[in-house]
Design goal:
The chain has a single domain, classed as Rossmann fold (3-Layer(aba) Sandwich). It is 31% helix and 25% strand. The chain is built from six helices and nine strands. The chain has a five-stranded mixed beta barrel with strand order 5-8-7-6-9. The chain is globular and about 55 Å long. The two termini are 30 Å apart. The mean pLDDT is 93. The purine nucleoside phosphorylases catalyze the phosphorolytic breakdown of the N-glycosidic bond in the beta-(deoxy)ribonucleoside molecules, with the formation of the corresponding free purine bases and pentose-1-phosphate. This is Purine nucleoside phosphorylase.
Length: 270
């Protein structure tokens, strides 16, 4: 993997990706942030050596480098998922590339379902902790110790200082921000009523199909991490209705401006 990381990094450096400070992963339906960036360079995933290719129709599949809120950033416009047939090592490979390019902080967004019935769709949840229900770990491969500590500590996976700043920004900008636990499942099917009840019992406030693998690898690489979920639907097992994916994407787009404000104002302080 070291060879692959070097090849991908050198390709991007030649394209003009020069020492970004912050990495950002944009989740499903969350692409508006790109319009806020002064773009300096970009690369399609299918042109980057060793990179997976996004297969979900609402994920663009580009790595973008530029200036946001006065800082150099590298942004994943579209991410990878286990449900697309990728391994957890594939899903998290871009995080290793961003770290090699120079980032010290990783900001992650996702679209998620609200398990906590006190949370409503269109609102945002700051992830304080997570539950990995994807069945494996992105660190479970031979040679991982060459890239970082095999037994990575996960007692504080999300940086307390950054989370405190995000909470203060939300208050200052009158943004309703919940804080809670995110459960990551494989998907791509959505959950049954019984699964929603189980998730509630084990302490999840929101559920999605991403984020946790990337956060594990970011911690493996000693990056500071923060993540937010844009809540796109309410997962009430006693009143469950069929989910409309188009409606989920539309709800993500509606809530996204608040997420952009949180990220932009945060980056100014880093």
């Amino acid at each position: 993997m070291t060879k692959y990381i070097t090849e991908s990094t050198e390709y991007l450096q030649k394209k003009g990706f020069d020492n970004p400070e912050v990495g950002i992963i944009l989740g499903t339906g969350l692409g508006q942030l790109i319009s806020e960036i002064e773009v300096i360079a970009e690369a399609s995933y299918n042109h980057i050596p060793n990179f997976p290719t996004a297969t979900v129709e609402f994920h663009k599949g580009k790595l973008i480098y530029g200036i946001l809120a006065g800082k150099k950033v590298v942004v994943m416009q579209g991410r990878f998922h286990v449900y697309e047939g990728y391994s957890l090592q594939d899903v998290t490979f871009p995080v290793r590339i961003m770290e090699k390019l120079g980032i010290k902080t990783l900001l992650v967004s996702n679209a998620a379902g609200a398990i906590n019935l006190g949370f409503k769709k269109g609102e945002i949840m700051l992830i304080d902790d997570h539950i990995n229900l994807q069945g494996s770990s992105p660190l479970a491969f031979k040679g991982v110790e060459e890239l970082g500590e095999r037994f990575t500590d996960m007692s504080v996976p999300y940086n307390h200082d950054i989370n405190s700043k995000i909470e203060a920004i939300a208050i200052a900008n009158n943004i309703k921000l919940h804080k809670g636990v995110y459960a990551s499942v494989v998907g791509p099917q959505l959950e049954t009523r019984a699964e929603y009840r189980m998730l509630n019992i084990i302490g999840a406030d929101a559920v999605g199909m991403s984020t946790v693998p990337e956060v594990i690898v970011a911690n493996h690489l000693n990056l500071k991490v923060a993540a937010v979920s844009v809540l796109t639907d309410e997962c009430d097992p006693n009143n469950l209705k069929p989910v409309d994916i188009a409606e989920i994407i539309a709800m993500a787009g509606k809530a996204e401006p608040n997420m952009i404000t949180l990220f932009k104002e945060l980056i100014k302080t880093l």
